[in-house]
Amino acid sequence: MNTDSEKRPLLGMTIEELQSVVTELAMPKFTASQIAQWIYEKRVTSIESMTNLSKQNREKLSLHYTVGRKSPAGEARSKDGTAKYLFEVAGGKMVESVYIPDNDRGNERATLCVSSQVGCKMGCRFCMTGKQGFHGNLTANEIINQIFSIPEAERLTNIVYMGMGEPTDNLDEVLKTVRMMTEKWGLAWSPKRITVSTIGAIPGLQRLLRETHVHIAISVHSPFHDERKELMPIEAAFPVSKVMELLRGYDFAHQRRLSVEYIMWRGVNDDDNHADALASLLKGTSARVNLIRFHAIPGVALNTSDEKRMTAFRDYLNSKGVLCTIRRSRGEDIMAACGMLAGKKLK
């Protein structure tokens, strides 16, 4: 008999992959749908719990497969209610997820920021994840496990691919997990509950737009080519002007929403000249802008803009017809805020 570490996880498989499994094991074809229901809807943690499968089929399945759920290896809780979870993935590497509860004017939301890679290749100057280098892509199992295995899993209302890694750099696995969350054999969520954040690698962005209906968030951080290239090397290959040109060709008027993430640094990208150029860059799109406070990370000589400057920047964009808000900072005391995830051991 295979040990658990040698067995393949069922969590993270699509319905087509589950159909291949039952065919390989000479089970009835409808068993695939039953397994999917047990894993994604009923959220069982053991094959033995799949009681409408015959004992013989459960034993056969257990020889080579496991459900594949894995609890967090550590956690940290913020005074504001945010929680950061550490998950061990292949090779003993670690990734982090961030749970953010929110009750805004009686509208309760519970969001999980999930990771898609161990580290990141993109090398953005202001991001702690990028500074640790790239150590591998997560599998669909390792991504979806973050969503299923936190203590608050049943409360989640929204998922954001905004943790460690660039989602479009591991797009096949990310798209598989989007299917698991949105299709009838999975969680059957509306795509409106899912946002994928990207720095704007155009080939991956095109696939996201074409193959899903999830919300899209673009990390911009500067409207000027040379400045953005210094902050985000991806600008050399995929200028943000070309990204916006692509996005103007898509309809964001109905279910899908387009947003722009803009971290503000004092004396770098927070003056009226930047606000005016950003408004021009976004002209012809329906993008709404989220202004984000910068959270200091070691070895980076950047400082966050003050509240007065951020408010003036927001008001300027709104006066130009660009919907803009200042995002409330969450989890900074546990290193869970934007750009601070590093897969470090949690106490």
Automatic annotation (TrEMBL):
Chain positions recorded as S-adenosyl-L-methionine binding sites: G165, E166, S197, S219, V220, H221, H295
Coiled coil: none
Binding note for cofactor: Binds 1 [4Fe-4S] cluster. The cluster is coordinated with 3 cysteines and an exchangeable S-adenosyl-L-methionine.
Ligand binding ([4Fe-4S] cluster): C120, C124, C127
Entry EC no(s): 2.1.1.192
Keywords: 4Fe-4S, Cytoplasm, Disulfide bond, Iron, Iron-sulfur, Metal-binding, Methyltransferase, rRNA processing, S-adenosyl-L-methionine, Transferase, tRNA processing
UniProt-listed CDD domains: Radical_SAM
Extra remark beyond the main annotation: Reaction proceeds by a ping-pong mechanism involving intermediate methylation of a conserved cysteine residue.
Protein name: Probable dual-specificity RNA methyltransferase RlmN
